[in-house]
């Protein structure tokens, strides 16, 4: 008896609601539907969601629109760099493999060439930050305290600070032991090397982002690029600063003090920062 009265009250409410809708002058497809006459159809009554939440989809760089746009911008910037600064690149390579006689010849970059190199240095920092983010999140189960964009930005800031401190270190050592002309030429070539290093690792970042290369392959490629750049640095510093037979050991000490040791410090800082940014369960 109670159930019948409930059905009658629901039907009365539904009829009253239908009359109000008709009075509002709404179209027919709003006023009537298949369930309009049903006494059990009440959209104003909320229902609780049933079931449990599923496992969240793991984060992927390939599905990140912002990072994909940044990588596309890096590609465009690299293409523009090669298209507009071909003469500058050939000039740097010509001076790299040329043994000068007497004083080292010097040439100055234009403002456009210098600005493009600065953009490429920022690009290099971003690409290294992405590679280290892949390394820090290898298994995909580590949770970070902050959003992935902030984590990548922190890593990029560390790399940028690393290159800036190296430039200051080069300036200080060059001011004490070498003349300003040679020191300035090495700083300009250092900027070219950092830009060139970013271009070399750019294909690796693309492959790692969209094709998930193995960790071993990535490590071998990055190590090869870093070693190749250090060899070029060693060769160039030997030409600029230590172009003497008796100064070969000095060049090795210079390379270890200003190239190898800061690299180990950088790796230690990145490791400590990565552990600090992760959630420790």
Describe the structure.
The chain is an all-alpha fold and 281 residues long. The protein has nine helices and no strands. Helix 6 packs antiparallel against helix 9 (248-277) and helix 8 (215-240) runs antiparallel to helix 9 (248-277). The longest helix is centred in the C-terminal third of the chain and has 32 residues, at 180-211.
Q: Judging from the principal axes of the Cα atoms, what is the shape?
A: elongated
Count of separate DSSP helical elements: 9
Distance between the termini: 58 Å
Instruction: Indicate the radius of gyration in whole angstroms.
Output: 32 Å
Q: Topology as H/E string? A: HHHHHHHHH
Taking pLDDT < 50 over at least 5 consecutive residues as the criterion, the unreliable ranges are 1-14
Mean pLDDT over all positions: 75
Q: What is the count of β-strands?
A: 0
The fraction of residues assigned to DSSP E strands is: under 5%
What brief labels describe this structure?
single chain, mainly alpha, disordered N terminus
